[in-house]
Amino acid sequence: MTKRFLNKLRMIKAVLALLTSNLKVWEMIPDVVSDVDELKLTVGEIETTQLLTSTELTGQSDEKETVQEKLIQMILSIASALAARADRVSNEVLAAKVNFSESALSRQRDQQQVVTGRRIAMLAEEQLEGLTSSGITIDQVNALRELTDQFEALLPVNRISVAERKAANARLKSLFKQADKLLKNRLDRMMVRYETEDPAFYAAYLNARMILDYGTRHEDGSTQKTASVAD
After folding, report:
1. pLDDT tens digits along 198-228
2. In the predicted model, what is the mean pLDDT of residues 119-129?
3. How far is the C-alpha of 132 from the C-alpha of 138, rounded, in Å?
4. Which among 95, 106, 109, 96 has a CA at the least distance from the CA of 73?
5. pLDDT per residue over 38-67, tens digit each?
6. SS3 label, residue 86
7. Whether residue 158 has pLDDT greater than 60
8. Mean pLDDT across the stretch 167-177?
9. Per-residue pLDDT averaged across 145-160, rounded?
10. Which domain of life is it from (predicted)?
11. Which has fewest Cβ within 10 Å: 9, 38, 80, 217?
12. Distance CA 203, CA 193 (A)
């Protein structure tokens, strides 16, 4: 959620908190009761949608990155043993196939890393007899294949999640517009009567409707809070 939306959500919650703590002022007016209930439902949907814009994708992205790091390290471990084997037996063809650095492997696209993982596993199985003295076993080769498959399986899931996050962000914009309309076109107008009936409550309502900017930090570590009229 953007800082602008987050500050606006704080404002809406402040309004609801004020109204809840002053229930006796407006609970006998059905239209206000209905509007407050609708605003609460909108806030609930905003918070649910917010989870789709952050937690879900982040979790999947973290999983992908974790598996990717393990895959790169396993590829390098087995490829290094293959390179040493190639040097011992003067196998220049094999040496050329496994001659890459960690940085070069890390720069490969995701799908290319999948190809590299499978190629190194295949080469290792072909050279397995000679790799035994280097501590490379068939279990390690199979583990590389499994890790490569696991990493590949995460790639389409991650792309779907990006699409879902875009849809959730669009939904958030729509929900905030809905909340703005509800506040400006209904609740703000219904509160005008209290300017004379209950000036203290009305002043508190106007104060709650101010959007505070909590996002600016200064060199001394303090956080600036600036108020603006809710748009």
Report:
1. 999 999 999 999 987 655 444 444 334 445 5
2. 91
3. 9
4. 106
5. 999 899 889 878 876 764 444 556 788 899
6. helix
7. no
8. 91
9. 81
10. Bacteria
11. 217
12. 12
What's the predicted TM-score (pTM) here? 0.54
The predicted model gives 139-160 an average pLDDT of 84
The full 3-state SS of 40-79, as one line of letters, equals HHHHHHHHHHHHHHCHHHHHHHHHHHHHHHHHHHHHHHHH
Among 1, 2, 6, residue whose Cα is nearest residue 211 = 6
Geometric angle at alpha carbon 161, from 160 and 162, rounded to 5°: 90
Tell me the two tokens of residue 112: 């290319």
Place of tokens 């790799």: 131
C-alpha distance from residue 9 to each of 106, 109, 170, 231 (Å): 40, 39, 16, 12
Structural contact between residues 176 and 49, judged by C-beta atoms closer than 8 angstroms = no
SS3 212: strand
Contact status, residue 36 vs residue 186, Cβ threshold 8 Å? no
All residues at 6 or more sequence positions from 92 whose CB lies less than 8 Å from its CB, including other chains: 86
Burial 188-209 (b: 16+ CB within 10 A, else e): eeebeebeeebeebbebbeebb
CA 119 – CA 79 distance, rounded (Å)? 10
